[in-house]
Amino acid sequence: MAAPRIRVLVIGGHPVIRGVVRLACESLEGFELERELSSVGEGMALTPDGFPDLLVLDLDLPDGDGLELLTALRERGYTGRLLVLSDRHDGATVLGALRSDADGYLTKSEGLRGLSEAMERIAAGERVISPELQQLAVAELGRFARRAREGAQAQSVLTPRELEVLAHLADGLTMQQIGRRLGISPRTVETHVSKLYRKLDVRSRVQAVSKAASLGLIDLG
Amino acid sequence: MPIALVPGHTADAGSVAPHYHPEGMDPLGRRTASSPPAPARRRLGVVVVDPLPVVRAGLALLIDDRPDMEVLADVGTADEGLEVIARTRRTRVVVLVGLGLGGEHDAAWLIRAVRERHPAHAVLGVGANADPISISRALFVGADGFIDKNVDPVEFLQALRKAADGEMVLVTPPAVQVGRIAESIDRRREIDVRLTEREREVLEVAAEGLTARQIAERLGVRERTITTHLARIYGKLGVGTRLAAINMATRSGLVAAGAPE
């Protein structure tokens, strides 16, 4: 009796990665590698009628961040299974992948030995992630929760004007420039800045900007 | 006769006992009659706070059975819990807070209080088949993790130890996804930022289903003040009814969605 067909799509920057996935599909009953893509650009061009049953996505793509591609695909309506491959094994990346509903996460340093088995189990509805990586994601979740709490607190004690000044500080403007931008005197800017420092519990512009970024009050990107 | 040098080792070379069974303990790490308990200062102290007496009794039995941990107290209210915590001299303490703890001093209140007054202690949310929103609620207010009661007891205890060692723990049935919890935390942050502390207070009390007058009584202000607050809340949240506001608050974990168990 024929196994149900599982259509696979791989997005991998390196031919070796794509090759390993290809071999895995060939060795697995019922798995069909439909397409091989090699960049974020190609991935972004995917439309729902091109969606596979199982997407194997290498996060380390040559032209951009695989996590962003992942988010975009999920937003575009991709609801199929997802296996993420990466060199990165830090909590933030793993958590990022899990937030996009990755069903599995394999690090490439292991030589992708468990790839076939992982693909089979994921296609069958299981989740495949090592306890170590799961723990990293959990630890990151804790930090994430703390930043959310402290960020919300900080954001609610800062006035809209202070948030504005903070954003300009992050852009590297001088007090004079900020004053001109906001139509207030440099003296007033200084008052805002010192109140800002006190509320953030910092002593310098660098500390203020760094803390604000880590709390998500400003975007340094 | 085999001599236990340290847990996990036995000096008797002739013994056929597998080396991972420490002298005096059975395969589950439970103390058998022949071994002494671990010295008191090393023992992990656990404070169990849960409204259900049977749950408290069950957890107490499970924990006290282990040589490396003991229940300092099991209590049914947040205030009693804080009292016990304030009195203990133990340095390795884990506080287990049942997410079903309700009322004014509910689970979230207690987690926040422990985090503020006793930052060195680990505090964990404990629930039964809890959903990502309830878990995110505990984490957002500062819990060092969450353990579901619907897990293997050995795993449960291992998580306690990890938490006491300063690790973040999350032990849930497989269906609960870390990603969903993170999303809930994001939603919570968004709503927290939009409202003032007072407005959050009003909304939390309103979610109990009280009338404006009852809310006013609870918070010690005039009814007119409450209706003003509510109107402002609706505006900020972009909703038109109290039900919609409460729904938003519930979905973000700002208010607990009834008893999680």
Summarize the structure.
The complex is a heterodimer of chains A (221) and B (261). Chain A has 221 residues and is of the alpha/beta class.
Would you write up a description of this structure?
The complex is a heterodimer of chains A (221) and B (261). Helix content of chain A is 53%, strand content 15%. With 221 residues, chain A is of the alpha/beta class. Chain A has 10 helices and 8 strands. With 261 residues, chain B is of the alpha/beta class. Chain B has 2 domains: 139 residues, Response regulator (Rossmann fold, 3-Layer(aba) Sandwich), CATH 3.40.50; 57 residues, Winged helix-like DNA-binding domain superfamily/Winged helix DNA-binding domain (Arc Repressor Mutant, subunit A, Orthogonal Bundle). Chain B has 10 helices and 6 strands; from the N terminus they run βαβαβαβαβαβααααα. Chain B has a 6-stranded parallel sheet, sandwiched between helices. The longest helix of chain B is centred in the last third of the chain and has 17 residues. Chain B is elongated. At the A-B interface, helix 4 and helix 6 of A face helix 4 and helix 6 of B.
